[in-house]
Amino acid sequence: MRRRKVHRNRILRCPMCGSTRIELAAGLITGQVYHCLACQYVGSLVLEVDVDDEGRPLP
Question: Rounded to whole angstroms, how far apart are CA atoms 51 and 7?
Answer without folding.
Answer: 11
